[in-house]
Amino acid sequence: MEQNKRMSLDPEAAARVARVLGEALPYIRRFAGKTVVIKYGGNAMTDPELKSGFARDIALMKLVGFNPVVVHGGGPQIGKVLERVGKQTEFIKGMRVTDADTMDVVEMVLGGLVNKEIVNLINQHGGRAVGLTGKDGNLITARKLALVEDDADLGFVGEVAEIDPRIVKRLESDDFIPVIAPIGVGADGRSYNINADLVAGKIASVLGAEKLMLLTNTPGVLDAEGHLLTGLTPEQVENLINAGVIHGGMLPKIQCALDAVANGVTAAHIVDGRVENAVLLELFTDAGVGTLIGSSGSVPPPAANGPEPA
Ligand SMILES: Nc1ncnc2c1ncn2[C@@H]1O[C@H](COP(=O)(O)OP(=O)(O)O)[C@@H](O)[C@H]1O
Ligand SMILES: CC(=O)N[C@@H](CCC(=O)OP(=O)(O)O)C(=O)O
């Protein structure tokens, strides 16, 4: 039986598989033992097959020697539950205004439903994922976020005051895959709702990650005509923000990408999570996908042979 299966493999398909694996090898060597932080946005969690494919990609990353750390959002999922309980919600500069009741829903949806769904899917694909919120091991200490240009009170919206990465490092070294919900704990023990992009950026910086990948529902950063911008420098990003081309939910995303790159993360990528195998395409192919934000707007592909330059 096994013999028959092998014989029926189409030679062209076999050559394609071999080519893809060959192309992946230098990337597997580049990232071996390195941390890659993947932010999985609620808008990218569109259908069951894509979610399952994402989980399989993360499990595979770990098996080939990377250290994936997942930080997830869940904005649309929070919105649905708020709607079900008849609660209005409002966003200011991409942040959800969060009163005490909304905070309860945020914590239940992110720390409960969404976190455990991702953990479960990764584990179904042979990974060993562990779900955390910022409260576990004091991972994320938060303080209330005050908007600089606006007087608006965002309620229990927080910003990261400090990341204690010990629990994440411990899980990584024991071959677990940390899956983190963006809820922080204040000095007073209260919960704070933090934009998941901001948490992902800070965690990537503190862990000294090789790469930060932000999965969302656009092909990447688009220009005023809707064309994909494949590589951006910090100066180009600033011009696009000033021109109003980057706005809404893309603002915290791009801000965290810039912060991460300024704090030692080699590159940040904004990637279309609605594309099948988006994570693997970005990691393992020369072309990559989405928008890369780096000090020079590009990262050279790894050498096909020999050691990686230090
Ligand atoms: N220049 C831009 N290019 C692409 N998307 C943009 C841009 N400016 C604003 N956006 C908006 O940002 C959204 C992504 O942010 P968000 O909805 O918060 O996603 P996520 O849930 O993945 O964090 C896009 O769907 C788009 O509506
Ligand atoms: C302060 C704030 O806005 N928090 C977000 C947290 C979830 C999130 O960031 O989800 P996405 O990545 O799917 O957008 C919210 O309440 O929606």
Number of DSSP helices? 10
Name of the CATH architecture: 3-Layer(aba) Sandwich
Rg, please?
A: 20 Å
What oligomeric state is this?
Answer: single chain
CATH homologous superfamily caption: Acetylglutamate kinase-like
Any idea what the shape is? Answer: globular
Strands of the widest sheet, in order across it, are 5-8-2-1-11-15-16-14
Beta strands, count: 16
The top-level CATH class is: Alpha Beta
CATH topology: Carbamate kinase
Give the N-to-C terminal Cα separation: 48 Å
Strand share of the residues?
15-25%
- Average pLDDT reading: 89
Helix-strand pattern: HHEHEHEEHEEEHEEEHEEEEHHEHE
Low-confidence region ranges: none
Structural class of the helices, strands and pairings? alpha/beta
Protein model, in words:
The model has no long low-confidence stretch (mean pLDDT 89). Strand 9 and strand 10 form a beta hairpin. With 310 residues, this protein is of the alpha/beta class. Helix 4 packs across helix 5 (100-124). The protein is built from 10 helices and 16 strands. The strands form 5 sheets. The protein has an 8-stranded mixed β-sheet with strand order 5-8-2-1-11-15-16-14, with helices on both faces. A two-stranded antiparallel sheet has the order 3-4. It has a single domain (31-293), classed as Carbamate kinase (3-Layer(aba) Sandwich). The longest helix has 25 residues, at 100-124. Adenosine-5'-diphosphate binds next to strand 12 and helix 9. This is Acetylglutamate kinase. Substrate binds at residues 74-75, 96, 193. Belongs to the acetylglutamate kinase family. ArgB subfamily. The record marks 39, 253 as: Transition state stabilizer. Catalyzes the ATP-dependent phosphorylation of N-acetyl-L-glutamate.
